[in-house]
Amino acid sequence: MVIKKILIPIDFSTCSLNAAKEGVALARTMNAQVVLLHAYRIPVTG
Asked: In this protein, which residues make up the domain named UspA (predicted)?
C-alpha cells in the first residue's frame, strides 16, 4: 500500500503536537505529504 498524504488533526495541545511530530516523522520515511488540520467552532450567541 502506498500512502501519499497523511492528515494530522491538531488542536495545539501538548498531546496533538507530539502526535504531529510522529506523523511528520512517518511521512518522511514514506515520502508522503503532510496535511495539518485545525478546525474551530464559532460559538453561537444570541
From this structure: 4-43
Residue 1 has pLDDT above 90, yes or no: no
Pairing between strand 5-9 and 33-37?
A: parallel
One-letter amino acid at 41 equals R
Is the pTM value of this prediction over 0.90?
A: no
Q: Show the 3-state SS of 9-39.
A: ECCCCHHHHHHHHHHHHHHHHHCCEEEEECC
**How is residue 41 written as a grid cell?**
467552532
